């Protein structure tokens, strides 16, 4: 199996957090129950790249229409995912995830709505996580709806493609935020279908051009409405699936706090915007509140 691009070291020195930033954040968070919305920027310190930070390369994620409508696109996706999903499975929570989990245990954070599919909030020990766009670890049949684990599908794909990984370079494989490894030649890869009905298999992930299931959206709005502030972390809020919660909060008396490296679509609506890395200020916030 090729080695993906290595994750950043977790023992590097954190970026400095100004006292003014921390004081203002503490002012807005203290005494409130806070819902959290996270994007890919919170997972970069776990070695998972994001889509839109200032240093990210251009990416063109596959759309739902391409996946279901063109077998060549599906073949390319499954070949690349066959390599990339293991890298995501091996990723571990970074200090930002851990700080948020501490804030949840302290009854500051009421729950996390995440646009990420990496399961890192769950791995960090959060009790209430809404995986808005699904998770990498499940696969769904588009015909009968049967759910299977990505691990069991990996065994079937390995059996169908016993020599595929021998053709891939051993180092430097780039993996996108949706567990899609950048592999140039995929035309020899063999796909497999649903064992129950022979239907098309798709990761249990919401693709571009696909709608988030309504019950999931309703649960996310319920979490926001039952909280007293919304903290957005690591998301540019480019897509409506996340932006709608920021807009909804901005129409209420609840503070909208945005922590992201780079601008977001909701900056004009925010009570406070902090253009700073996630982990240092979240860790400082958890320490200041005295969480365990």
Number of helices: 9
Q: State the total count of DSSP E strands.
A: 9
Helix share, percent: 25-40%
User: Ends: how far apart?
Assistant: 39 Å
How confident overall, as mean pLDDT? 88
Described by strand count, sense and barrel closure, the largest sheet is: 6 strands, parallel
| Secondary-structure content class | alpha/beta
The string of secondary-structure elements, in order, is HEHHHEHEEEHEHEHEEH
What would CATH call the homologous superfamily of the largest domain?
Answer: TPP-binding domain
Estimated radius of gyration = 20 Å
Strand content: 5-15%
Q: Regarding CATH, which class of the largest domain? A: Alpha Beta
Reported by name, the CATH topology of the largest domain is Rossmann fold
Catalogue the unreliable spans.
Answer: 1-14
Oligomer: single chain
Which overall shape is indicated by the principal axes computed on the Cα atoms?
A: elongated
Strand line-up in the sheet with most strands:
3-2-1-7-8-9
Notes on the protein architecture:
With 292 residues, the chain is of the alpha/beta class. It folds into 2 domains: 156 residues, Rossmann fold (3-Layer(aba) Sandwich), CATH 3.40.50.1220; 106 residues, SIR2/SIRT2 'Small Domain' (2-Layer Sandwich). The chain contains 9 helices and 9 strands. A 6-stranded parallel β-sheet has the order 3-2-1-7-8-9, with helices on both faces. Strand 4 and strand 5 form a beta hairpin. Helix 4 packs parallel to helix 9. It is elongated and about 55 Å long. The relative contact order is 0.22.
């Amino acid at each position: 199996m090729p080695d993906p691009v290595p994750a950043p070291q977790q023992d590097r020195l954190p970026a400095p957090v100004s006292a003014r930033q921390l004081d203002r954040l503490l002012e807005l968070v203290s005494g409130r129950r806070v819902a959290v919305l996270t994007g890919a920027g919170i997972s970069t310190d776990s070695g998972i790249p994001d889509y839109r930070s200032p240093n990210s390369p251009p990416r063109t994620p596959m759309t739902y229409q391409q996946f279901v409508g063109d077998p060549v696109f599906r073949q390319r996706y499954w070949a690349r995912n066959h390599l990339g999903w293991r890298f995501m499975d091996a990723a571990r929570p970074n200090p930002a995830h851990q700080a948020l989990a501490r804030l949840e245990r302290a009854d500051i954070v009421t729950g996390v709505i995440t646009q990420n599919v990496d399961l890192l909030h769950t791995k960090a020990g959060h009790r209430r996580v809404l995986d808005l766009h699904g998770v990498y670890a499940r696969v769904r049949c588009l015909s009968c709806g049967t759910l299977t684990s990505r691990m069991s599908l990996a065994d079937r794909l390995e059996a169908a493609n016993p020599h595929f990984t021998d053709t891939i370079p051993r180092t430097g494989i780039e993996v996108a935020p949706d567990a899609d490894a950048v592999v140039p030649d995929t035309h020899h890869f063999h796909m497999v279908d649903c064992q129950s009905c022979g239907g098309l298999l798709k990761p249990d992930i919401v693709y571009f051009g696909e709608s988030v299931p309504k019950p999931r959206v309703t649960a996310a709005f319920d979490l926001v409405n039952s909280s007293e502030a919304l903290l957005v972390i690591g998301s540019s809020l480019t897509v409506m699936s996340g932006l709608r919660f920021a807009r909804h909060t901005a129409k209420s008396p609840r503070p909208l706090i945005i922590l992201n490296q780079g601008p977001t679509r909701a900056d004009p609506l925010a009570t406070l915007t902090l253009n700073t890395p996630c982990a240092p200020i979240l860790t400082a916030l958890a320490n200041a509140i005295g969480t365990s």
